[in-house]
């Protein structure tokens, strides 16, 4: 006689077998290149094993498939199609701009920090903000204000390094660059002097901002993180930190609205208020909603500016210390020309220091501050290489991988060679080559190309010119310099250096 237990076991096994067969037959990517797809689990095990080195895993898989498009999928989540071809990036970012959007999942994951700001919305809300912000970024007053702030914060960094050199201290220069860029972009965004660099303890706003970003990083990496927050207390911590950041921003917004000397401010918040038809009416957004609009704008600018420039400077210094011959050439250029001042024009600085510019661009190529990007497809389509993408799927590209792709950058693609960016006219004058934004999508591309691109370049070049000729930096031995898996590309363990003044 067959026992009830035996029947139960057989039923479970039959159910499991049925599930496996169904999963196999319904696999949405069975005709695509895919790394170790398993029934029921998809690529979940591979992703879990490699989450600590996600960007290098994407590189390894892409090389395994010889640069061809591939796909991965985990249960209850969108299929992701990975293509690291400049033609695909152009297809997505420019030619089919209205088909490939940020999407609801992206928006909801980052909403606590970015709200409905320019980097977190699509369609008409994005167009409204883009139009207004682009006018501001090209305005003469704002350009002059940016230049002033950039030089003042570079001077503050110089003074800080001078103190550290005198005390023969060891510093985490990765952290220091981020403190400086936090100070810079808080001033540019809403006129707030965070003083992260000089404060004995990190200010509450900066601490809250960092914790919010770390929490949201988990959401981007783990599709189930939002649910785990409800269990492990993370959601309450997130809300508390958002409240800390919001309290300061809303307080300053309120002060500016009631400031009769509004025209005396040149930060982004003040200009937004100044160009509105009425202080409480921004493109039809009124009352508290207008304050939320301004709050979201401030948060978006700080996130984009701080990380792009702080990480770009960190990896640039790392590359220079690993390539002393390049550092020598950079110093030779800085020594050969008058040091720029606060009155210098951005475009003059970029033109007068082509090698410094090339060094920064090459460091960004190998270590892009946004190492990967995604867009959600709104209707079935076919990529330029013939890959079918269904509505609701996500197209992903890895700028980190593409920068190491020999078919794109040549046999020396994985080498740090600033000279690849330089050209010379018949009179021997050097200039920096402008590559296609789809081959070099460091600042995105198409209609959403980064409005702050020139600002990031100015901030970085100003900093390098200020410090690289006056200080020596020595990497502490035994440390690991590697990229954290995140929304952006922070160094996982920072970068410890000894700093000393040059004679």
Automatic annotation (TrEMBL):
Keywords, in A-Z order: Heme, Iron, Membrane, Metal-binding, Monooxygenase, Oxidoreductase, Transmembrane, Transmembrane helix
> Binding residues for heme, per the UniProt record?
450
One GO MF term on file is: monooxygenase activity
Record Pfam families: p450
Under PROSITE patterns, the record lists: CYTOCHROME_P450
Query: GO biological process annotations for this chain's record?
Result: lipid metabolic process
| Top-rank lineage group of the source organism | Eukaryota
Q: Which cofactor does it need?
A: heme
Q: What InterPro entries does the annotation carry? A: Cyt_P450 (IPR001128), Cyt_P450_CS (IPR017972), Cyt_P450_E_grp-I (IPR002401), Cyt_P450_sf (IPR036396)
Locate the transmembrane regions by residue number: 7-25
Instruction: Say which family it is in.
Output: Belongs to the cytochrome P450 family.
- Per its record, how is this protein called by name? Cytochrome P450
Origin species, per record, is: Basidiobolus meristosporus CBS 931.73
Highest classification ranks of the organism? Eukaryota, Fungi, Fungi incertae sedis, Zoopagomycota, Entomophthoromycotina
